[in-house]
């Protein structure tokens, strides 16, 4: 069974001793084809941008990334590969910036919370004389 659109090819098998058709002996088949590589479609990062918009939206970077992702998808549908690649890479950079800012904010929150809790549970260690 061959996929639609691919050519089929009949190959006459030869025995190693030079006779055709009769089974037996070692059969060597050399087959080479030229592979065509389809161009890779540019990524638009829409799902990542939606997650950044809903969950991690510092300074509205998630919204801006979502807008650029939608523009990239529109350019891809219109056939403008370079425009889609440009908008897609901008959306990727904005999503990375949003993630980094969220992780920094979470880290600052954890550090602040741990310092406050350590002072509340052990007030005498910082020179407090109450």
Number of strands: 0
Largest sheet: none
Query: What's the shape?
Result: elongated
**How many whole angstroms does the radius of gyration measure?**
31 Å
Helical content (DSSP H or I, runs of 4+): 40-55%
Contiguous runs where pLDDT drops below 50 for at least 5 residues: none
The secondary-structure class comes to mainly alpha
Average predicted confidence as pLDDT: 80
Q: What is the CA–CA distance across the termini?
A: 87 Å
Q: Report the sheet-strand fraction.
A: under 5%
Describe it for me?
- With about 130 residues, this protein is mainly α.
- It has a domain at about 45-125.
- It contains 3 helices and no strands.
- The protein has helices at about 45-55, 60-80, 80-120.
- Helix 2 (about 60-80) packs antiparallel against helix 3 (about 80-120).
- The longest helix has about 40 residues, at about 80-120.
- It is elongated.
Comma- or semicolon-separated keywords:
single chain, 130 residues, mainly alpha, 3 helices, Dispanin subfamily A member 2b, IFITM_antiviral_protein
């Amino acid at each position: 069974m061959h996929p639609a659109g691919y050519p089929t090819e009949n190959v006459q098998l030869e025995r190693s001793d030079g006779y055709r058709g009769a089974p037996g002996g070692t059969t060597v088949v050399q087959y080479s084809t030229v592979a065509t590589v389809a161009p890779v479609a540019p990524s638009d990062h829409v799902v990542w941008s939606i997650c950044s918009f809903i969950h991690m939206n510092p300074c509205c970077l998630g919204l801006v990334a979502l807008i650029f992702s939608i523009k990239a998808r529109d350019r891809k549908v219109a056939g403008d590969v370079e425009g889609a690649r440009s908008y897609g890479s901008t959306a990727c950079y904005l999503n990375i910036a949003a993630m980094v800012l969220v992780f920094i904010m979470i880290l600052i929150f954890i550090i602040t919370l741990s310092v406050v809790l350590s002072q509340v549970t052990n007030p005498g260690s910082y020179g407090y004389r109450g």
